[in-house]
Amino acid sequence: MRKQITIAAAAALALAGFTAAPAVAAPAPAATAAIAQATDLQQVRALILQQTNQQRAAAGLPALQASASLDAFAQDCTQRQADARSIFHCDPPADFGRAWAENVAFGQSPDRVVAAWMASPGTARTS
């Protein structure tokens, strides 16, 4: 499940910033595993977004913001990847426009995801 969370976070972050959405506070801790996993996913996404924005700020670029619609698209893409036991890029819906990028990762911590993206010139350009 942790690998799926990392993929989802990576895909969600890669798409974030195209559409701004208000920040949403993480839910209060709950007893169910499903809610605990959702909270973990939100924390992973938040860490990747925060670290990517630190890199963007250092490069003089504006911060990215989370987007609920892009997160939903990324989660669907992540589920398809998990079902296929493969990592691949997903085509966005037509209403996403042309100004977007997708960076994917698999099985890495948030720190390693961002470090790997920044070490790749092509990926760093779209982060």
Provide an overview of this structure.
The chain is mainly alpha-helical. 57% of the residues lie in helices and 0% in strands. The chain contains five helices and no strands. Helix 1 (2-15) crosses helix 2 and helix 1 crosses helix 3. It is globular. It starts with a helix and ends with a helix.
- Helix count, DSSP H or I runs of 4 or more residues: 5
Please give the radius of gyration in angstroms.
14 Å
Whole-number mean pLDDT: 72
The helix/strand order is HHHHH
Main beta-sheet annotation: none
* Count of β-strands: 0
* Mass-distribution shape: globular
Q: Return the structural class.
A: mainly alpha
Low-confidence stretches: 1-32
Topology readout:
Blueprint: H1 2-15, H2 33-58, H3 68-84, H4 110-119, H5 121-125
Concise structural overview:
Helices cover 57% and strands 0% of the residues. The chain contains five helices and no strands. The chain has helices at 2-15, 33-58, 68-84, 110-119, 121-125.
